[in-house]
């Protein structure tokens, strides 16, 4: 009896009964060492926090004003530009999955009989978003935007193809000029002609060999020489993407792409012949938001602090006399009807003409050149209305 009492007081593990059954015993030990519900709950929370942090880092990176040195995307390699492959037209199927491809597409031939090639950068796979810059050869802000976008894209996360042509008008770019080598405006010649002038043939092949392969088009521009722009978007609001509702002018790349059923927008990013870091940064957020909305990158769109202003129409105010022009309001500011917007003085300093805002609106762009002849552009006014105008002409020439 005494012995039995002592035995019951001893702590005999319950599993002692199975002591001989090693297999079951092993299982029980494993069960005891497995993470508890509490532990796995915290592990899950930690992963969520890490994912949020990465997303936040990405957003902050996009918001950062770029430095002058553009970081090199990791998988671009060290092949010299001259040694990259040259193709007759864009074939999105040749892109390897999960890597950035760089190559040339031949568009036309120059006076030496040599090829005029445009540089193309692309990543795989799904719907194709095409981004073109410098179709006007001196409108450069789109170039660093494209470079930055390709350092940001994680190839393994991308669902879709991003194709960028950082310099669409190569002859114009080489001469630091807006037009083609003959001076004509490629953005008024689209879709070009197979048998036409040098610029028409270039436009034709640019459409056929590259743009026609896109599902969406983002065409990046800036103001023209002697003028300054805010950051704004031209779009046909029936395919809703903001800001200036504007049926594309005849011959524009956007108009020609829409004719092919490719939803397209034009983005005007600041001023010509320079890199403007803030504008590039904000436009980059816009471009990556488009990729987010198309579910091509696994991020939430980075919404702006303020809703963009949607203008039903916009137009340029032209000067009626020559002289020295001063435009008063800054771009991106509002003016009220009757407010003074510009003065023209004679070369002797007499006030020749005062311009007033013809109606309430927002300043989209303005002249940056004080030398003003009759018919010079003064100011680009955007007007907000509840109904979108059927036809608008904002005179982007
Ligand atoms: Zn342009």
UniProtKB/TrEMBL annotation:
<dbReference type="GO" id="GO:0016788">
    <property type="term" value="F:hydrolase activity, acting on ester bonds"/>
</dbReference>
<dbReference type="GO" id="GO:0046872">
    <property type="term" value="F:metal ion binding"/>
</dbReference>
<protein>
    <submittedName>
        <fullName>Succinylglutamate desuccinylase/aspartoacylase domain-containing protein</fullName>
    </submittedName>
</protein>
<keyword id="KW-0862">Zinc</keyword>
<dbReference type="Pfam" id="PF03105">
    <property type="entry name" value="SPX"/>
</dbReference>
<dbReference type="Pfam" id="PF24827">
    <property type="entry name" value="AstE_AspA_cat"/>
</dbReference>
<dbReference type="InterPro" id="IPR055438">
    <property type="entry name" value="AstE_AspA_cat"/>
</dbReference>
<keyword id="KW-0479">Metal-binding</keyword>
<dbReference type="InterPro" id="IPR053138">
    <property type="entry name" value="N-alpha-Ac-DABA_deacetylase"/>
</dbReference>
<feature type="domain" description="Succinylglutamate desuccinylase/Aspartoacylase catalytic">
    <location>
        <begin position="125"/>
        <end position="291"/>
    </location>
</feature>
<keyword id="KW-0378">Hydrolase</keyword>
<dbReference type="InterPro" id="IPR004331">
    <property type="entry name" value="SPX_dom"/>
</dbReference>
<feature type="domain" description="SPX">
    <location>
        <begin position="1"/>
        <end position="31"/>
    </location>
</feature>
């Amino acid at each position: 009896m005494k012995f039995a009492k002592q035995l019951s007081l001893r702590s005999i593990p319950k599993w002692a009964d199975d002591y001989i059954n090693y297999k079951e015993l092993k299982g029980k030990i494993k069960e005891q060492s497995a993470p508890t519900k509490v532990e796995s709950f915290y592990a899950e929370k930690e992963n969520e926090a890490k994912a949020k942090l990465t997303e936040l880092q990405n957003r902050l990176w996009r918001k950062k004003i770029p430095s002058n040195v553009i970081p090199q995307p990791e998988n671009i390699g060290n092949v010299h530009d001259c040694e990259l492959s040259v193709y007759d037209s864009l074939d999105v199927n040749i892109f390897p999955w999960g890597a950035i491809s760089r190559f040339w597409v031949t568009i036309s031939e120059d006076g030496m009989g040599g090829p005029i090639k445009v540089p193309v950068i692309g990543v795989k796979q799904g719907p194709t978003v095409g981004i073109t810059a410098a179709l006007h050869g001196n409108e450069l802000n789109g170039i660093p935007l494209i470079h930055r976008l390709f350092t940001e894209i994680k190839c393994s996360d991308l669902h879709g193809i991003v194709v960028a042509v950082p310099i669409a008008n190569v002859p114009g770019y080489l001469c630091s000029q807006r037009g083609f080598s003959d001076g004509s405006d490629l953005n008024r010649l689209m879709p070009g002609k197979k048998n036409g002038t040098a610029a028409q043939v270039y436009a034709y092949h640019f459409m056929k060999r590259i743009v026609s392969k896109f599902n969406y088009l983002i065409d990046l521009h800036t103001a023209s020489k002697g003028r300054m722009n805010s950051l704004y978007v031209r779009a046909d609001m029936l395919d809703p993407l903001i800001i200036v509702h504007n049926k594309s002018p005849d011959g524009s790349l956007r108009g020609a792409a829409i004719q092919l059923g490719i939803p397209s927008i034009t983005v005007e990013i600041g001023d010509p012949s320079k890199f403007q870091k803030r504008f590039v940064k904000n436009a980059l957020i816009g471009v990556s938001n488009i990729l987010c909305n198309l579910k091509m990158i696994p991020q939430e769109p980075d919404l702006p602090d303020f809703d963009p202003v949607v203008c039903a129409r916009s137009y340029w105010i032209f000067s009626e006399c020559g002289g020295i022009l001063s435009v008063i309001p800054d771009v991106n500011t509002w003016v009220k009807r009757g407010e003074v917007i510009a003065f023209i003085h004679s070369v002797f300093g007499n006030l020749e003409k005062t311009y007033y805002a013809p109606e309430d609106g927002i300043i989209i762009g303005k002249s940056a050149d004080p030398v003003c002849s009759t018919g010079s552009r003064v100011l680009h006014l955007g007007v907000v209305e509840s109904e979108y105008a059927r036809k608008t002409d904002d005179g982007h020439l």
